[in-house]
Design brief:
Helix content: over 70%
Distance between the termini: 47 Å
CATH superfamily of the largest domain: MetI-like
Strand order of the largest sheet: 1-2
Number of domains: 2
Oligomer: single chain
Radius of gyration: 25 Å
Number of helices: 14
Structural class: mainly alpha
Strand content: under 5%
Largest sheet: 2 strands, antiparallel
Length: 300
């Protein structure tokens, strides 16, 4: 009996011995920075020296800042339209490849649409800024609209067109591996579902809404969460192309966080912005999980 108990405690000790290093690393490099950022959002945190507790002063400054609310509105517009354009385009492409009769041709197209993911993102951004949506008369889009008699547009540097230009960036939004995830989801649907649909006379368009989308809930939830997390945190386009302008028409909270950290050294306010972004992301993830769970219960 003692031998069995000794072996059991030995296995538990060995397990904790192996788990301690990774848990310590996670605590040090993941948990501690997050907890520290929350604590320092209640402080006047200078670059050097000790911080001073100001409690909710940073949040009051944040909520009374018109630029923050404007940037939050910009983020909402960019995230919503980015989610719609990216998911609709990739799902449409996955459906086209899935319904191709000639599988060899389908495989060729899979490789072709993966090529854009091999190009560094910075190169893509610079191409759109300097070639496609260049504000000069030699920009590709200005040349195209000039054929119809329209005047050249400043695009990224026009306050009325800047958000639309950001949404348009990356058109047709189908490069990368996202469409492969949708395609794998379609291929995992039992063939019996498609046979039953054909026997009932359901067209391919109706099948998309009655069979494909309900059975792609897992993929949709994944892209919803990843899209929101990436969209809330992203500020690369703002930093590289417009620097938040013109007149903060493209600024987002992530860019303000960067600006307050490296531009104004207001690290406490930057931490408060980070906490707000965390709350928004967590709320969206929680809502998505609950809606997906209810959807699964309805299907079951």
């Amino acid at each position: 009996m003692k031998t069995t108990r000794t072996k059991k405690y030995g296995r538990v000790f060995s397990a904790w011995l192996w788990l301690t290093p990774p848990l310590a690393m996670i605590s040090l490099f993941c948990l501690y920075p997050a907890v520290s950022a929350v604590a320092r959002s209640f402080m006047d945190w200078p670059l050097s020296g000790a911080g001073k507790w100001v409690w909710f002063a940073n949040y009051r400054t944040l909520f009374t800042d018109n630029i923050f609310w404007k940037s939050s509105y910009n983020m909402l517009i960019l995230v919503v339209f980015g989610m719609i354009t990216a998911n609709v385009a990739t799902l449409f492409l996955a459906e086209l490849l899935f319904n191709m009769r000639r599988q060899r041709v389908s495989k060729v197209f899979r490789y072709l649409f993966l090529i854009p993911s091999l190009v560094p993102g910075m190169v893509t951004i610079l191409l759109w800024k300097n070639v496609v949506l260049s504000g000069g008369s030699g920009g590709l889009m200005n040349i195209i609209i000039g054929l119809f008699g329209a005047e050249p547009n400043a695009w990224y540097f026009s306050e009325s067109m800047s958000k639309f230009s950001f949404i348009l960036t990356g058109f047709p939004w189908v490069g990368g591996i996202s469409f492969l995830i949708y395609l794998a989801g379609l291929q995992a649907i039992p063939e019996s579902c498609f046979e039953a649909a054909r026997l009932d006379g359901i067209t391919t368009f109706k099948r998309l809404f009655y069979i494909d989308l309900p059975l792609l809930t897992g993929q949709l939830k994944y892209f919803l969460i990843i899209g929101v997390v990436g969209g809330v945190q992203a500020f690369d386009l703002q930093l590289i192309i417009t620097d938040g302008g013109p007149n903060y028409s493209t600024a987002v909270p992530g860019y303000l966080l960067y600006l307050k950290t490296y531009g104004y050294s207001a690290l406490g306010e930057a931490s408060a912005i980070g906490v707000m972004l965390f709350i928004i992301t967590f709320a969206v993830m929680l809502t998505a999980n609950r809606l997906a769970a209810k959807r699964q219960e309805g299907i079951a």
